[in-house]
Amino acid sequence: MPLPPNDVRPRLDEVDLHLLSLLQADGRTPNNLLAEQAGIAPSTCLNRVRRLREIGAIRGVHAEVDPAWLGRPVQAMIAVRLRPDARGALQTFARSVAQLPEVLNVYFVSGSYDFLMHVATSDTEALRKVLVEDVSGRPVVASTETHLIFEHVRGGAAGTDPVTPPSARSGR
C-alpha cells in the first residue's frame, strides 16, 4: 500500500509497535495470546491489528520458505545499474524482472546502482542464465554486479522492542 500524500500516516503508539514486533516474530500467533503478550484485551487486540492492516502497517502475513527446499539453493543479490537515458524505465524494469520465477525481491536503492535483486536458482548455470539473458541482456541495463549469498540471518523489527510489553516498560 503506498504511503499517503506527504507521508501523513497515523501515529503508532507503543502498543501498536509491540503488536507489530510480536506479529513479525510469528504472524500465526492467535489473537488471545497476542493480546496477553501485549497486555491488552482480546477485543482491543483484534481491533488494533485490524487497524494496522487497514492503514498498511501490516502488508501481509506469509510463510518464509527456504528456497533450497524448492530446488533453488543458489541465492544471490544482483546489483543493477540502468543506462542514464533509461531513467523513465525504472518502474517498467522493476515490474518486469519481478515477474521472473527466480526473483524473490526487487529493491529500488540509492547509491551507484539503481536496483538490488534477490534471486534464487537451482545452480550456478541457472544463475548465469538469469544474469546474462534475463537481466544484462535488456537494452536499459548498463551494468550489473552479482554477490552470492552464503547465509541469511533475519533481523528484528526496526524501532520495536520484541521482548518487553509496553505496560512493563512504562512501569504500570
Task: Reconstruct the topology from this structure.
Blueprint: H1 14-25, H2 31-38, H3 42-54, E1 74-82, H4 90-98, E2 103-108, E3 115-121, H5 124-136, E4 141-149, H6 166-169
Antiparallel strand pairs: 1-3, 1-4, 2-3
What's this, in brief?
With 172 residues, the chain is an alpha+beta fold.
Descriptive report:
This protein is of the alpha+beta class and 172 residues long. 34% of the residues lie in helices and 18% in strands. The protein is built from six helices and four strands, in the order αααβαββαβα. It has a four-stranded antiparallel beta sheet.
CATH topology of the largest domain: Alpha-Beta Plaits
Number of strands: 4
If strands are numbered along the chain, what order do they take across the biggest sheet? 2-3-1-4
Mean pLDDT: 89
CATH class of the largest domain: Alpha Beta
Rg estimate, integer Å: 20 Å
Considering the protein shown, what is the CATH homologous superfamily of the largest domain? Lrp/AsnC effector binding domain/regulation of amino acid metabolism (RAM) domain
Instruction: Pick out the low-confidence regions.
Output: none
Indicate how many domains the architecture comprises.
Answer: 2
In helices, the fraction of residues equals 25-40%
The arrangement of helices and strands along the chain is HHHEHEEHEH
Main β sheet profile: 4 strands, antiparallel
In CATH, the architecture of the largest domain is 2-Layer Sandwich
- Portion in strands: 15-25%
Keywords:
Alpha-Beta Plaits, 2 domains, Arc Repressor Mutant, subunit A, 6 helices, single chain, 34% helix, alpha+beta, 172 residues
